[in-house]
Amino acid sequence: MASIYNDLGVYNHDLGILDSTFYYYIKAENIYREIGDSMKMGELKFYQARVLFEKGLHIESESKVASVLQVLNNYPFSPIPFEANQLMGTCLLNQNDFEGAKKYLLEALALMQKDAKQNKILDLNRLKMAKSMLYYNLSEVSYYLEDYKEVTKYASTGLSFIIPEIPSLLKSVLNSGIAKAEFMDGLKSYSQTEFDYYIKQLENTYDEAAILTNSYVMNEMAMTIASLYLQDKDSIQAFNWAEKVYQLAVDRNIKVDQKNALEFLVSHQHYDNNSRVKEIITLSNDLAELDYATRNRFARIAYETERVATENDELRNVILMVVVTSLIIILGLSVGVFIYRLRNKNRELSFIHTAYMPVRADLQSVQSM
Predict the structure, then answer these.
(1) What percent of the chain clears pLDDT 90, i.e. is strictly above it?
(2) At residue 203, does pLDDT exceed 50?
(3) What is the distance between the alpha carbons of residues 263 and 152, in angstroms, rounded to a whole number?
């Protein structure tokens, strides 16, 4: 029954009906809980976290991912930690915690590199796809950290894993990452940039995502295009693209994206009391960050604390093994030395006894005379 609920969740997810998707994943998880299958519970929790992220509920998604990582920490051959660490990184990226995001993405990369030589968790093609997506996410973190050279490096590395089986949209997204990084790097170094060339790549990626009805990529591309037009001093085009983001968010009922689009519009348009509106936006964001910092990181902190405790236990076990092994070696050497000395002593006694035998025979002969 659990697998049926899971399949229904996948079916509704493909249709973009996220509420029903979440419902069926919860139903499947509850059945696995009843039969005590922790690994399947962890997997279903991850699918729920992914739905929450797509709904724009990044904090809730982060909390659920933390619980997933706690559960699946005991299942080293599950592929879910690859994606879960990536999702955690993306959640943190959306909370502007760029260093935290990079930490989790690099953790995912380390897991993939570990499996790359053996392919016990993912086959080669699936691993290449996972790496391509991971390097895209790393390039996004670097973009927000304004390290545009690193953006190009990560995105180019992601492209090196592209194979025919990988969706072409991922290749387009990686190329768009390079395009926006090169444009911003040109602005940063006051170099002349071919804006039309770069913006066309992003617009083509948006169109490709629209054909595939990939709303997430559409939103990301449209918001980036709006920002780049603003950098190019073309406010009309910037606001047009921001309006697209807003309408897309309304159609999908994604409140966070609606808020971001409206903030972009009201922050850069000219009207009376513009400074007051900006102040309200800043205060609202500050309060949200404060709430996030004080209430919503507990699940992630619990996971990281438990992981440190586990690592400490493992380290203590390693130290204990080293100490025990050392004692065994020392004891073995001591016994060996003792046996060696005992054998030498026996040889000495044997030699003395052998040397004394002729003398003793002579003495006995003399006495008999």
Answers:
(1) 35
(2) yes
(3) 29
